[in-house]
Design goal:
about 260 residues, alpha/beta, Nitrilase/N-carbamoyl-D-aminoacid amidohydrolase, seven-stranded mixed β-sheet, six-stranded mixed β-sheet, 13 strands, about 25% strand, globular
Length: about 260
Amino acid sequence: MKIKIFQFQVIDSDTEANLNKVDSLFAETDLSNTDVVVLPEMWTSGYDLENIDDHAANNLEPVKSIITKLAQDNKVTVVAGSIPNKYENSGVYNTAFTVDRHGELIREYSKMHLVPMLNEPEYLESGDKSAEVFEINGETCGLVICYDLRFPELFRDLSLSGAKIIFVVAEWPIERTEHWITLLKARAIENQCYIVASNTIGTQTNGTEFAGRSMIINPFGEILAQADKDTEETVTAELDLDYIDQVRSDIPIFESRRKDLYKNL
């Protein structure tokens, strides 16, 4: 499975500019033989939380229709990062979604872990549905958002449900870069799966600078491809899904688990 991550600078508070940016990236990138394109977290608005109600989509629209056309025109599945989103009579959620190459919505997930350090609970609603697995080209996948990376039980739940690839869409700050790299590698190693992580770059008007370093990590914890910290670029790697079985056979952690002795799981 061939993956491309679009790492770019999100312009906070300017949905039109961000939509145009993504449209240009699709138009300018050779997507032949590509299976999946991945976008970052909150890419339509950035972290303009004080005005997030103004930036929110309604049931993912009109963004979903735009992504659907891009997916169909380019014959790729789009892991469309996340966007601020309202449902009927609701507050604003941080909602990630995935559209397949046929234009079908195959996964929708609202961020369950809100970031206290960014005052997210003050402006956003917490998702109340599990991060269920879904399929891309017959392979079982998971999708989580940024701060979710700090909760290993979420990743283990997805891997026990069969996930071979877990997508992490983020706007991760530069001051916690080492956490980003270490946790991504740990999640890959401890779950023996591929981790595909998309992040943004640049500084937004609230002063937050993002870490970049979007990356793709194999089930042994090796970085297959990685972007720089401050460059707009496309990260590409081809995933060998059979390698997962090899790693899990060589180091059989799932067979060695002692569920009978884990008191709080």
